[in-house]
Amino acid sequence: MRCAAVLVVVAALAAFASAAPLKMHVSGQRFADEDNRERFFHGMNVVNKVSALMLVLNVPYVPVIDHFDVNFSFSQEDVDVLTGFGLNVIRLSIMMDGAMPAQGAFNETYLSLMQTLIEIAASRDMYVMIETHQDCFSASLCGEGFPTWLAQIAVDPMTPALPLPLAEPYAIDPVTHMPSAADCAKLDWSDYQFTAAQADAYQKLYTVGTPANQGFSDHWRRIVQRFKNNTNVIGYELINEPFAGNIYKNPELMIPSVADRVNLQPFYDNLSNVIREQDPNAIIWFESVTWDDFVPMGFEHPPGGFQYSNQSVISLHYYFGPNVSPMNQFAARYSDAERYGTSLALTEFLIDPSDTPSALEHMSKTMDAADKYQMSWFGWDYKVFEDTTYGPSIWWPTNGTYNWPVVETVARTYPQAVAGKTFHYSYDVATRIFILEYYVNAACKLPTDIFLAEDVHYQNGYTVSVNPSNVVTQSSIKNHVYLTPTSSASNGKFVTVVIGPTK
Questions:
Q1: 414 partner at 20 to 30 Å CA-CA among 146, 227, 425, 496?
Q2: Measuring CA to CA, which residue among 356, 61, 106 is closest to residue 219?
Q3: Strand partners, 127
């Protein structure tokens, strides 16, 4: 009878794992599913910035989705690989230049291909956060992401020509309205944000009611209309790494927190209205300007107001080099999340393909700090979607085999779902010991779900210790340990779980 009961439990868990992904919301500053389990996500950015190198159905910015390719795909095999290493979410860029290449006209073929990609992720219970990626606005301003038409209506004709005041003006092609790639390569990409043209473009984008602002609102309105019914979509990030605005007309925007309050607050409040008119339950992810690392964010409230705290997520980026200490930066943002009553997630940090000891240590320290603050995270970047001359694939070097040092670092043991309130969890990359402490929610019908990459870290097996032992029952399938509250478990009972390799 005992064996039969175990088989029934395992069969039920397998059926649950293959069901449609559960819809997410934010509760108590954490993600939660429909069963009110707290949920945690580890994943990768899937951002195809390449407009023309590989075209799918003659549509730019789309990964190959019908077969696996080391450099160009996001296919079923890609999803199987990532979920096998415990990565259960992607930050998917739906490029405005792909979605709305002409003012007022949407490329529905592009949006349909993105829908197919989202469905491929859903087939393995992988979640998707949708963002509109841009760096330095538009290709017509030596950047990427936003369409040329948006830059044209955002930059005043009287604004000093690109790249003033940093260098002499570049020649602009009269047909494409673009500077040459050779000219754009003369400066570091991030320098272009400090050109008068880009400063003016961002200011017009942020100013509610301008043609550029209305065009961007139209883009988000259509994106939410198109994708809101996917249960594995866990929200929308309004803009990637927003610049401060026109720092030449208002130099105070360079002061930390000022641009958040002056420019981004009304911009985000307006987008909140646009998005929530289409999806009242939408979770909105939002960033500050990139130099607000260690100071409080300048927002007065989450996008749309404090009534949407439980539908809002602070998004932050961390890179060794320009940023200094992950613990300090995450502590600052955690304080912001407490002040606003929102959740918090690390949406970019470097997954370094070089696999040097220092690179692996930097990655581990960043993920350790994220664990301390119970933050979900997204590594940058899954693939470069360029040919191999651009650089090595993070997961597959040019010979197509796994980059095992990176895999071993990223495929951490962690709780994907907690049937209760999480107090603490941590993973030691050296010993492969994982600790979870939480207060049981006896009302949860679904189990705590701990991911562990058996073929990476526990080839000779693993042990699970639960204290007290009579509060939950254990079961498992490949790469997952499940802990289900017993019928006699009292609500709020404190449980400690330790998982380690068999000695």
A1: 227
A2: 106
A3: 89
**Pairing state between β 448-451 and 127-131:** unpaired
In CATH terms, 420-502 corresponds, of 3.40.50.2300, 3.20.20.140, 1.10.3540.10, 2.60.40.1180, to: 2.60.40.1180
pLDDT at 391: 52
Tokens of 364: 């581990």
Tell me how far the alpha carbon of residue 212 is from its chain's centroid: 25
Which stretches in the chain have pLDDT values below 70? Answer: 1-20, 51-57, 387-392, 397-399
Structure tokens at 476: 């498992």
- Among 241, 287, 348, 408, which one carries the catalytic annotation? 241
Q: Can you give the pLDDT at residue 33?
A: 96
Determine the Cα–Cα distance for residues 245 and 147; give it in Å rounded to an integer.
18
Longest dimension (CA), the chain: 82
Q: CB within 8 A of 364, min separation 6: which ones?
A: 409, 429
Instruction: Tell me whether the omega of the peptide bond preceding residue 501 falls within 30 degrees of 0, making it cis.
Output: no
Note the pLDDT tens digit of each residue in 130-187. 999 999 999 999 999 999 999 999 999 999 999 999 999 999 998 888 999 999 999 9
pTM over 0.85: yes
Task: Establish whether 144 is a catalytic residue.
Answer: no
Question: In degrees, to the nearest 5, what angle opens at C-alpha 78 toward C-alphas 403 and 388?
Answer: 55
Nearest to 129 by CA among 86, 88, 78, 68: 88
User: Residue 261's pLDDT is what?
Assistant: 98
- Walk across the sheet containing 38-39 and list its strands: 25-27, 30-32, 38-39, 414-418, 448-451, 480-485, 472-477
199 burial class (0-12, 13-18, 19+ CB within 10 angstroms)? buried
Residues 72-82: pLDDT tens digits?
Answer: 899 999 999 99
Nearest to 60 by CA among 52, 68, 72: 52
* CB neighbourhood size of 396 (10 A): 19
| Residue-range domain boundaries for the chain | 19-411, 420-502
Q: What is the bridge-based pairing of β-strands 127-131 and 472-477?
A: unpaired
Transcribe 1-66 into DSSP letters: -HHHHHHHHHHHHHHHHHSPPPPPEEETTEEE-TT--EE--EEEEE----SSSS-BTTBTT--B-S
Contact 491, 452 (CB under 8 A): no
Calculate the CA 269 to chain-centre distance.
21
Which run of H or E residues covers position 225?
A: helix 211-227
CA-CA distance, 495 to 135, in Å (whole number)?
Answer: 45
Q: Which residue has the tokens 């003006």?
A: 169
> What one-character-per-residue DSSP string does 303-369 give?
TT-GGGGGGEEEEEEE-BTTB--HHHHHHHHHHHHHHHT-EEEEEEEB--TT--HHHHHHHHHHHHH
State the pLDDT at residue 501: 98
Residue 488 one-letter amino acid = S
Tokens of 161: 């020509």
Residue in the block written with tokens 């491929």: 120
